[in-house]
Design a protein that fits this description.
The protein is α/β, with parallel strands linked by helices. The protein contains 5 helices and 17 strands. The strands form 5 sheets. Strands 7-14-11-17-9-8 form a 6-stranded mixed sheet. Strands 3-4-5-6 form a 4-stranded parallel sheet, with helices on both faces. A 3-stranded antiparallel sheet has the order 10-16-15. It is elongated, with a radius of gyration of 23 Å. 28% of the residues are buried.
């Protein structure tokens, strides 16, 4: 709380951006005595070597170890409110390779070539002014502004969701909304339903006049069936992958009436035609389903 001309005003939240070694220095600020860590809401690092590129002296080694030790000790409690994201330049950054930009304390680690709407690698300096990346970060920053406070939201979970929305899920320029993917979806039992029995399959459909559901049964007894990857082209709907714990028979066809929405886990792929993909850990799905037989539905 700061007192200005006798009126108390709340201190504004801070958004820190560090490029290259500046990102490590920004993290080091939290180790300084008297630094008001509670003021910082977001820390964004660009092409930052969170692991040293080359250690030439003991002082640099001590510096990295001191910063890492402090974050290891306080990340889960005193620094839990800080939303930390690290973006690397990828292949074109010959000064700081992508692996060195991976921060174990970050909520999000990504390279610029994987950011939807960017899709390009940047060199060490141009990551700062890459227009596609700047636009995505600007959208994320403005989406973090609370509608009432007009400041960066105090909710770390919302800030993380906003970053995932713009830097992972592929927003297409659309603003973040908590209601974008409803938790459950009611399905049309009168649609066209088909079972997919093969481990690898391709489905091509022409003019679709009704909802089309393809069901993939997840066998809880098959230890080899661990991961499932689905890719869709020309998928207009944001909601297209659902988990169903039980089915019913309707007109001699097994259908699912209610599904858990898994679409938020899908990513946008580069290229034309609204390409989307989702990669699921089926072992996790089995555990979540209390080891019951589960069906995965993909909707067109």
């Amino acid at each position: 709380i700061a007192e200005v001309t006798g009126v108390q005003t709340c201190a504004l939240p801070i958004f820190l951006v560090g490029h290259s070694l500046g990102g490590v220095i920004a993290k080091a600020l939290f180790t300084l005595p008297g630094f008001q860590a509670s003021r910082v809401s977001v820390l964004l690092t660009l092409a930052t070597p969170h692991h040293p590129v080359l250690l030439m002296d003991k002082q640099s080694d001590d510096f990295y170890k001191r910063v890492s030790s402090h974050w290891n000790l306080h990340r889960e409690k005193d620094l839990a409110h800080v939303t930390l994201a690290s973006i690397g330049g990828g292949l074109r950054d010959v000064q700081v390779r992508a692996g060195l930009t991976n921060d174990t304390h970050a909520d999000l680690n990504i390279v610029s070539s994987a950011v939807p709407g960017v899709w390009v690698s940047t060199d060490h300096r141009c990551i700062v002014w890459c227009k596609q990346l700047v636009l995505q970060l600007n959208r994320a920053l403005f989406d973090m502004i609370g509608p009432v406070s007009k400041q960066i939201t105090a909710s770390p979970s919302v800030r993380r969701s906003v970053l995932h929305h713009h830097l992972l899920e592929g927003s297409g320029g659309q603003p973040y909304s908590e209601d974008r993917h409803p938790a459950t979806v009611t399905m049309d039992k009168n649609g066209y339903w088909s079972d997919i029995l093969k481990r690898q399959f391709t489905v091509t459909k022409g003019n679709i006049t009704c909802e089309h559901y393809m069901m993939v049964k997840l066998n809880t007894d098959d230890a080899k069936q661990r991961f499932l990857t689905l890719e869709a082209v020309r998928m207009e709907s944001d909601d297209w992958v659902f988990g169903c714990k039980e089915t019913v028979v309707h007109r001699n066809t097994r259908v699912c009436t209610q599904g858990d929405n898994l679409s938020s886990r899908s990513l946008v792929l580069p290229g034309k035609g609204h390409r989307r993909a989702v990669h699921l850990d089926l072992l996790e799905a089995r555990r979540a389903g209390d080891r019951k037989s589960t069906r995965l539905n993909s909707s067109h």
